[in-house]
């Protein structure tokens, strides 16, 4: 059993019969789905990830659309980086707005990570992603230049041009050359008119399942 599987098994032990559970995306979540399926619990699953939703349906789980639910008992997700202050950076999927809605709905929002993704402070080895209204794209780029940020619009190798979010918004990757406090950075970027959401999670995370080489630690806020 690898570290991600151990993490998923620990997460499964926290889930109780009849809960409404949010699931993000990634390999550890896929392992968690397998764990849930084996226990055959009477759960409702909510997810911002189309891939996760499809896998849950294939496993015979009850998947409920996000807009039909106003609160979750628990939500589990992965991330690119998380620090000791429970601030996290999620860059990969480009669905961070929906992930943040899911996180905000949850009584407990728990990230599952291995040691390589956990540090005392965020290292910003991944970009901060902005979801922005298309009409505000040029304005936001100019504002980012004024703030001396390095940035680029996100592209896809499957077509020429912008990669859009599920809601038709543009994704901009912002790169840091030096450390900035995550909460300060979030407030600064979110304050730019036209920014829908920022892929920094500075208040949502309530727990971290940290997979070490020989054990899983449950860190609580």
UniProtKB/TrEMBL annotation:
It comes from the Bacteria. Keywords: Isomerase. One of its GO terms (biological process) is D-ribose metabolic process. It holds the Pfam family Rib_5-P_isom_A. It is an enzyme of class 5 (isomerase). One of its GO terms (cellular component) is cytosol. Its EC number is 5.3.1.6. The keyword Secreted does not apply. The keyword Lipid biosynthesis does not apply. GO terms for molecular function: ribose-5-phosphate isomerase activity. Transmembrane segments: none annotated. NCBIfam families: rpiA. This is Ribose 5-phosphate isomerase A. The lineage of its organism: Bacteria, Bacillati, Bacillota, Erysipelotrichia, Erysipelotrichales. The gene is rpiA.
